[in-house]
């Protein structure tokens, strides 16, 4: 009999980036890299575990923006083109490295992996959501939803704007997965008291918060973060366990920094002869990462002093780390079981993209972890939040505190000198959306289309990603562009609707460009 | 640096950077919305962000009442009310408040509030020479987040099934195990500690945009978590110019917000600081300079 549970949660998110107006668009690569390095390897791993009879449970929030991009035909075609290029390059690399044993082994690994990507991508007819859906239907994966466009709830001042983020997300989930979502990942784990009532109205039974969301809740949590709590609404909140988070993120002991693992920043896009690599760069010809990397982290040395990567040694390391992670969870569970006299629940939450994209061996680590938990021990069992709530419907009632999983634990990463100017505009647009919805509760034809598109533009402008990027300081111009474009387009639609003079060409163009949530209903703002 | 003997690849070849086709910072957005508005947002347990604006109509009325140079000459203050326990702003019955002078034209401000888990709302108004407060704008109401383990111990339990829920009495629950206070305090300490040591992990590795939620490294580890206790003075230099202008402070370029405003927050230790602010118009013909000097002495 197990003594406690491990609930692994991967938050899979990318902002909606789709630019049909350009033949080739740099930021679309974020999706393509994530598909090749994270989403397909995870899916491949889940399917392998199922076929080998390994019982496992994992929870993933696939955000509506990510699901929208997975299902979009234009992006599917562009990914296919991108993957073809990668495959072509990896074939050339087999020839180039053929006399160099260590590099050749790695070149072979890429070639095999890209072929596998092609196989899986084709198997699901270009929409890998179908793959995740299958794993969910097999009972191993619980897919939860997220705020419609990753809007940051605590910094919205209109209840209806918050409600729309949830309502539209749930509607989208039902369309994509053929069932209702049971839980949600609030964007950035950003919770504010009262938001749980919106979840309840939408049939959602649980969400996640960072550790202090519950530790600093009122009254004090009897079981710390090792059992979920019910908000006054009856919606359950699960809090992050900091020990298992620390094992991955810590500067001293964090796994992804191991010298044997692949170095992210040493990429052939920078290393190889310009004429050779040029066809695989973007149309502007600037050297960037292309996704083939031959070196390992090595240690605290400069990029040029990195040593060649050894796939077998890296895999071995991932197995060791999985063993270490499991051992620590067993010890933790045994200790807590003695302390709280109830089977503790360890909630380990990570960005999905950590596994594969940033930490290349991350999917291997997870695969080893699931196998070890299945075969080698009896202390811990993996579980999904829904399963846990079924086993333990009795939980403490507690008001979690406003919190997020961002730097410093509150709202500052999304509200500081670099991005605070956006809220004036986001709030105004939300107020206007509510206003024009109230004025046109039963619009039809062109006006209905304009109202729906206005809702899309508002939602896209609210993505927490833009404020995040402004603080992080990477690709700021793009975050500015997206915020301003959507506010500009929303404002234009608002004025056209107010004046009852809708420019159909302008509207059609926007519908074609920003086509997220094809069946959106603007009355979510009613 | 020694050459990597096993590397089959060449060093980076410098390529002339073609002008990127991707640099596009978007369509213009309204600078203001011609409305009376004052909004506050919680940043963390101890800081509130406020932004405001007034309509042309209100502006005209104020000028009529207080003189044309009201926005330059009058003493604008933010009155920060702690209205914990009230459902909404109790008006003149509010007894617990503090005031701070602000420049009306900055249009936003960060306000330090002492206590966490309190309900706040603010007013923006004019303080007349005889000490009277003339309110102009009233904000929304917010509750700041809690920053520590709660003192409340009363426990309630609930049973929730998919279609049914029931509140349990305390007695219905087995209460063995360690007390909630020890548990919560121990975990909170551990959380705070790990938060500090996890800062800066893989700072080079995870600098990408897509590493959402990853704690971005801080240069001053530890200090940042408690900075409201340590940093005793901060200086904010702010202003506005034409949105298309380029601006420098002490010859360092400063990014303008799309509406042409800018602000720079700097720590302010003892000594004298000088800020040479220079705006140059897009066509490089017009130039404006303002120099601000500030001095701080700890006696």
Q: What is the gyration radius of chain A calculated from CA atoms?
A: 23 Å
CATH architecture of the largest domain in chain A: Alpha-Beta Barrel
CATH topology assignment of the largest domain in chain A: 7-stranded beta/alpha barrel
Q: CATH class of the largest domain in chain A, please?
A: Alpha Beta
What's the multimeric state?
A: heterodimer
Shape of chain B: globular
| Percentage beta strand of chain A | 5-15%
The CATH class name of the domain at 37-143 in chain B reads: Mainly Beta
Q: Indicate the CATH topology of the domain at 37-143 in chain B.
A: Immunoglobulin-like
One letter per element, helices H and strands E, the order of chain B comes to EEHHEEEEEEEEHHEEEEEE
Major sheet attributes of chain B: 5 strands, antiparallel
Radius of gyration computed on alpha carbons of chain B: 26 Å
CATH architecture of the domain at 37-143 in chain B: Sandwich
What would the principal axes of the Cα set say about the shape of chain A?
globular
What pair of chains forms the biggest interface?
Answer: A-B, 125 and 108 residues
CATH superfamily of the largest domain in chain A: Glycoside hydrolase 38, N terminal domain
Note down, in words, how this protein is organized.
The complex is a heterodimer of chains A (526) and B (299). Chain A is α/β, with parallel strands linked by helices. Chain A starts with a strand and ends in a 13-residue tail after the last helix. The radius of gyration of chain A is 23 Å and the shape is globular. In chain A, the strands form 2 sheets. In chain A, strands 1, 2, 3, 4, 8 and 9 form a 6-stranded parallel sheet that branches. Chain A has 2 domains: 4-71 and 127-254 and 310-408, Glycoside hydrolase 38, N terminal domain (7-stranded beta/alpha barrel, Alpha-Beta Barrel), CATH 3.20.110.10; 416-525, Up-down Bundle (immunoglobulin/albumin-binding domain-like), CATH 1.20.1430.10. In chain A, helix 1 packs across helix 4 (101-123) and helix 12 crosses helix 13. Chain A has helices at residues 29-51, 64-70, 73-96, 101-123, 129-137, 159-177, 195-201, 211-215, 242-249, 268-271, 274-277, 311-340, 362-376, 385-391, 422-439, 445-461, 464-472, 476-499, 504-513, and strands spanning 4-12, 58-62, 141-146, 184-185, 206-209, 229-230, 236-239, 345-351, 380-382, 394-397. Chain B has 299 residues and is mainly beta. In chain B, 13% of the residues lie in helices and 34% in strands. Chain B has 4 helices and 16 strands. Chain B has helices at residues 56-66, 70-73, 180-198, 227-230, and strands at residues 37-44, 47-53, 75-82, 97-102, 108-112, 119-127, 133-138, 142-143, 156-161, 164-168, 234-240, 246-249, 252-254, 261-267, 271-280, 287-296. In chain B, the strands form 5 sheets. In chain B, strands 3, 4, 6, 7 and 8 form a 5-stranded antiparallel sheet that branches. In chain B, strands 13-12-15-16 form a 4-stranded antiparallel sheet, with no helix packed on it. Chain B has a 3-stranded antiparallel sheet with strand order 1-2-5, with no helix packed on it. Chains A and B meet through helix 8, helix 9, helix 10, strand 10 and helix 15 of A and strand 1, strand 2, strand 9, strand 10 and helix 3 of B.
């Amino acid at each position: 009999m197990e003594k406690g549970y491990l609930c692994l949660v991967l938050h899979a998110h990318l902002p909606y980036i789709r630019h049909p107006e350009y033949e080739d668009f740099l930021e679309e690569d974020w999706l393509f890299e994530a598909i090749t390095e994270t989403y397909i390897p995870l899916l491949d791993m889940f399917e392998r575990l199922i076929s080998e009879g390994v019982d496992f449970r994992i929870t993933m929030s696939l955000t509506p923006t990510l699901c929208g991009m997975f299902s979009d035909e234009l992006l599917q075609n562009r990914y296919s083109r991108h993957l073809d290029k990668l495959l072509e390059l990896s074939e050339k690399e087999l020839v180039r490295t053929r006399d160099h044993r260590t590099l050749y082994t790695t070149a072979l690994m890429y070639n095999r992996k890209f072929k596998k990507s092609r196989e899986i991508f084709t198997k699901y007819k270009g929409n890998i959501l179908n793959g995740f859906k299958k794993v969910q239907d097999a009972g191993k994966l619980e897919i939860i939803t997220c705020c419609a466009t990753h809007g940051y709830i605590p910094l919205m001042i209109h209840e209806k704007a918050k409600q729309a983020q949830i309502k539209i997300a749930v509607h989208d989930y039902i369309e994509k997965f053929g069932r209702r979502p049971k839980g949600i990942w609030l964007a950035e784990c950003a919770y504010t008291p009262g938001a749980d009532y919106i979840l309840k109205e939408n049939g959602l039974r649980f969400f996640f918060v960072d550790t202090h969301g519950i530790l600093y809740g009122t009254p004090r949590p009897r079981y710390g973060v090792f059992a979920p709590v019910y908000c006054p609404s009856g919606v359950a909140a699960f809090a992050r366990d900091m020990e298992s988070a620390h094992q991955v993120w810590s500067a001293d002991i964090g796994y992804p920094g191991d010298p044997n693992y692949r170095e992210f920043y040493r990429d052939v896009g920078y290393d190889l002869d310009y004429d050779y690599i040029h066809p695989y760069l973007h149309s502007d010809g600037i050297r960037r990462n292309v996704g083939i990397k031959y070196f390992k982290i090595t240690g605290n040395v400069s990029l040029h002093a990195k040593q060649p990567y050894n796939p077998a040694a890296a895999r071995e390391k991932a197995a060791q780390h999985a063993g270490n992670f499991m051992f620590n969870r067993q010890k933790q569970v045994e200790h807590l079981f003695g302390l709280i006299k109830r089977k503790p629940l360890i909630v380990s939450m990570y960005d999905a993209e950590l596994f594969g994209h940033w930490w290349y061996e991350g999917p291997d680590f997870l695969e080893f972890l699931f196998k070890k938990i299945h075969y080698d021990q009896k202390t811990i069992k993996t579980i999904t939040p829904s399963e846990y709530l079924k086993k333990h419907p009795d939980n403490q009632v507690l008001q979690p505190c406003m919190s997020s999983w961002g730097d410093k634990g509150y709202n500052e990463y999304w509200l500081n000198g670099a991005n605070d100017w956006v809220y004036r505009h986001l709030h105004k647009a939300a107020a206007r959306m509510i206003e024009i919805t109230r004025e046109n509760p039963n619009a039809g034809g062109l006006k209905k289309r304009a109202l729906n598109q206005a809702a899309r533009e508002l939602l896209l402008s609210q993505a927490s990603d833009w404020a995040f990027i402004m603080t992080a300081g990477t690709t700021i111009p793009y975050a500015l562009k997206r915020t301003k474009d959507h506010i500009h387009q929303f404002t234009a639609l608002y004025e056209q609707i107010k004046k009852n003079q809708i420019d159909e060409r302008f509207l059609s163009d926007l519908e074609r460009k920003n086509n997220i949530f094809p069946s959106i209903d603007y009355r979510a703002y009613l | 640096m020694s050459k990597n003997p096993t590397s089959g690849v060449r060093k980076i070849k410098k390529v002339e950077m073609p002008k990127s086709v991707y640099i596009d910072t978007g369509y213009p957005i309204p600078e203001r919305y011609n409305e009376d508005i004052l909004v506050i947002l919680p940043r963390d347990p101890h800081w509130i962000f406020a932004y405001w604006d007034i309509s042309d109509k209100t502006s005209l009325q104020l000028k009529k009442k207080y003189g044309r140079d009201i926005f330059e000459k009058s003493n604008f203050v933010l009155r920060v009310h702690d209205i914990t326990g009230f459902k909404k702003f109790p008006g003149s019955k509010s007894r617990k408040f503090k005031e701070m002078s602000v420049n009306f034209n900055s249009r936003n401000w960060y306000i330090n509030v002492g206590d966490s888990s309190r309900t706040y709302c603010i007013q923006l108004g004019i303080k007349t020479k005889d000490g009277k407060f003339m309110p102009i704008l009233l904000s929304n109401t917010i509750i700041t987040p809690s920053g520590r383990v709660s003192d409340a111990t009363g426990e309630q339990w609930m049973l929730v099934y998919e279609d049914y829920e029931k509140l349990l009495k305390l007695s219905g629950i087995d209460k063995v195990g360690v007390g909630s206070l020890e548990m919560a305090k121990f975990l909170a300490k551990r959380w705070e500690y790990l938060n500090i040591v996890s800062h800066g992990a893989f700072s080079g590795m995870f600098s990408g945009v897509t590493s959402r939620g990853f704690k971005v490294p801080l240069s001053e580890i530890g200090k940042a978590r408690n900075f409201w206790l340590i940093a005793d003075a901060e200086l904010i230099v702010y202003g506005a110019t034409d949105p298309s202008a380029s601006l420098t402070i002490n010859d360092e370029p400063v990014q303008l917000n799309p509406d042409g405003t800018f602000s720079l927050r700097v720590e302010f230790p003892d000594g004298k600081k000088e800020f040479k602010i220079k705006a140059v118009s897009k066509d490089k013909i017009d130039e404006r300079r303002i120099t601000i000097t500030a001095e701080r002495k700890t006696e």
